[in-house]
């Protein structure tokens, strides 16, 4: 699995994909956090990074499918998937290696945003006037959100040989999982609306963004990732049916 991870990650770094993804993410978040007056931290008056954590999931919704769309679709189209599958590797190792490479690239895009935290920390009045616990929870939630989006993207790429179709399926899947249950919950009231909203990612992401690291939220994200990678394995195994 490590060999696959290294091969895939090096392929990202040797192509414009990694630099475009990281560049687009940083430019987009930078504009919203520091430039646009309606969302700028400098105009907001409060020392927090809520703007970053509100906008980042929407940017990831498009960027992560762009990362994952080639993982299996490109192998199928080029005819190298059979060569890969005949290597002494299990389906789980192949999927795990490709998945972790995509997730690592997505998380790499988050690293430079730590400068945003440092800047807001320094600009706070008094210095350090920022809710660090909520910030840590938000970064954790954003990382787990990226992990689920990457798993959706890997699955989308495994069921088609066309990268564009894989991208569109992944974007729609991420959108539905992130906002679909909240939209459905708005139709209902009371406990029914609550339980429906808990089926979606957004509710658990919001809880983590408050600095409340609950085992139920972590279990939800991990369960989603495992389930999506499992159905990806089934999609690959279907070649033998």
TrEMBL record:
Location, primary (coarse class): membrane
Keywords: Cell membrane, Membrane, Transmembrane, Transmembrane helix
Transmembrane segments: 12-35, 55-73, 94-118, 138-157, 164-181, 218-236
InterPro entries membership: ABC-2_transporter_component (IPR051449), ABC2_memb-like (IPR025699), Motility-assoc_ABC_perm_GldF (IPR019860)
Membrane topology annotation: Multi-pass membrane protein
Superkingdom of source: Bacteria
Localisation: Cell membrane
PANTHER family: MEMBRANE COMPONENT OF ABC TRANSPORTER YHHJ-RELATED, MULTIDRUG ABC TRANSPORTER PERMEASE YBHS-RELATED
Protein name in the entry: Gliding motility-associated ABC transporter permease subunit GldF
Gene that this sequence comes from: gldF
């Amino acid at each position: 699995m490590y060999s696959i991870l290294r091969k895939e990650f090096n392929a990202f770094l040797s192509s414009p994909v990694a630099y475009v993804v990281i560049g687009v993410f940083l430019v987009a978040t930078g504009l919203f956090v520091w430039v646009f007056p309606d969302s700028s931290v400098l105009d907001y008056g409060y020392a927090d990074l809520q703007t970053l954590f509100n906008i980042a999931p929407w940017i990831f919704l498009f960027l992560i499918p762009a990362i994952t769309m080639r993982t299996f679709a490109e192998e199928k189209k080029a005819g190298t998937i059979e060569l890969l599958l005949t290597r002494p590797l299990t389906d789980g190792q192949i999927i795990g290696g490709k998945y972790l490479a995509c997730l690592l690239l997505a998380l790499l895009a988050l690293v430079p945003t730590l400068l945003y935290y440092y800047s807001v920390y320094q600009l706070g009045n008094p210095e350090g006037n920022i809710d660090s616990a909520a910030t840590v929870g938000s970064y954790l939630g954003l990382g787990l959100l990226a992990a689920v989006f990457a798993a959706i993207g890997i699955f989308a790429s495994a069921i088609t040989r066309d990268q564009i179709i894989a991208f569109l399926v992944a974007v729609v899947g991420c959108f539905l999982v992130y906002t679909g249950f909240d939209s459905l919950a708005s139709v209902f009231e009371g406990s029914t609306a609550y339980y429906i909203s808990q089926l979606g990612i957004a509710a658990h992401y919001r809880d983590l963004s408050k600095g409340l690291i609950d085992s139920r939220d972590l279990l939800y994200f991990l369960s989603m990732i495992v389930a999506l990678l499992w159905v990806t394995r089934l999609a690959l195994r279907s070649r033998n049916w």
